[in-house]
Amino acid sequence: MPSAGFSKLSKENGPTDTEQEEANQSAAITTSQISPASGLNLKLENGLLDFLFVSPVRWFRMLAEKIHWSFVVGVIVIYGASQGIGGSVFKVSSDYYWKDVQKIQPSEAQVYSGIISIPWIVKPLWGLLTDVLPVAGYKRRPYFVLAGILGVVPFLIISLCKKLHVVFALIMLTAGSAGVAIADVTIDACVAENSIMLPSLAADMQSLCGLSSSVGKLVGFSISGILIHHIGSQGVLGLLGIPAALVILVGIVMKETHTPDFAYGEVNQKLREASGKMVKTLKCRQVWRPCFYMFSSLALSLNIQEGLFYWYTDPKAGPHFSEEGVGFIFSFSAIGSLLGVLLYQNSLKDYPFRSLLFWSQLLFGFSGMLDLILVFRINLKLGIPDYFFVVIDECVSQMISRLKWMPLLVLSSKLCPSGVEGTFFALLMSIDNAGLLLSSWLGGLLMHLLNVTRTNFTNLWLSILIRNFLRILPLTLILLVPESDSNSNILPPEILNTDQHIINTETEPHNIELVSLVKYTS
């Protein structure tokens, strides 16, 4: 605000005609000195600032207004902090934990990583509990709190116990994974239901999940190697209690309707009703066909990452990357994942599912050839250092993988019937996770059969070649995917509109489905 003296001076002694003319001439000269190139640069700078800062803020505000701010915060915490930062730090630290502390073979580590993912396969169980069995009158908030506690305790035990038996360590890591899975299925229920209620925002909600996850992974991978170098893999695993504690806070702030008079005696009946509705939906042709494709595309993409990790860090056969180097390499994979989300959100989200999945699966198979070039050390013959080539490999592979994953998530949210959105979305995700588990175990079996060990990497190239070939096979099933896009309803009307009266919680307060967060938007 101008001062009183300045205001008075302006009123009493305004500019003369001569002064005004000189000012106009000066402004004209200044304007004439601006070249077209300078104007173009100014526009580019403004456009870049708008893309990096203004547009994201406007987008977050739009989601918070149309859905609810607590939903946006919950997605950021669970996908960004818990799964993003926590998941990436867990990935690197657990690899070093199995390799340096437990000293097991890469094929064993690959199998153990599959066992740790089992809580993600039983996601329908967590979904049914959150849909059917409220605690203290709430269906969501208590399960966030439970998930946070289940995530804090096991990681603290691993960090405090110097040498755990491998079986007990596996149990603790699996329990921590269960905590993350319970939080994931609870927030996924919100995403699924709001995708049904607001189909035009379905892709935006999945982009919010993917963006939060990618940024979180970028941060997590960037700091993981440094943390492991300074406090060791066990100490880093103990730090994973921090994102788990944030999940507890989500349970405290999440907006949810309180239902104090829930009839617990009707739980069995509601379980039967929910199970019957899910079975009916799965029998629908529009549902089981894309589900079979999703499972096949994931199961046939064999996971041999543990073998590559052991080779990365081997001082003789491999490039011998340090802990910090491995962390930064994976951080570039997070950048690739983030680029995939941005590319999907800004350019590809309105394309048909079948076209997107065809090209992304094809590129996914070809991108695996970069690993073959690296293992054969062809990059060194071309004058490309290992570190630089691995960064390119991880960035490109993860970008394509994210482009493949995003339409699968949106498609899954479109297959959920009203009334059991959370449980059914969890069922679809468990099918995907079963495919990932099978790919991990088949990858471990492949490395075992080819005798890929802690020190023998002679046949690692062959396992990569077999994996790349199997990645192309799902294209033979691409016709199982619908041609519709993210703006269309896939379910037939008789399933999509079944039990629409269930959504009205004012007349039926004890139903098994999520209460839409949209109703409580202020």
TrEMBL record:
Cellular compartment(s): Membrane
Transmembrane feature ranges: 67-90, 110-129, 141-160, 166-187, 235-254, 292-313, 325-344, 356-378, 424-448, 460-481
SUPFAM superfamilies: MFS general substrate transporter (SSF103473)
Domain of life: Eukaryota
Entry membrane topology: Multi-pass membrane protein
UniProt KW keywords: Membrane, Transmembrane, Transmembrane helix, Transport
Residue ranges with Polar residues bias: 13-30
Any one Gene Ontology BP term: folate transmembrane transport
Chief location: membrane
Residue ranges of the region described as Disordered: 1-30
Single GO MF descriptor: folic acid transmembrane transporter activity
Family matches, as InterPro entries: BT1, FBT, MFS_trans_sf
Pfam families the record matches: BT1 (PF03092)
Gene Ontology cellular component annotations, sorted alphabetically: membrane
Protein family (similarity comment): Belongs to the major facilitator superfamily. Folate-biopterin transporter (TC 2.A.71) family.
Protein name: Putative folate-biopterin transporter 2
The species this protein was found in: Zostera marina
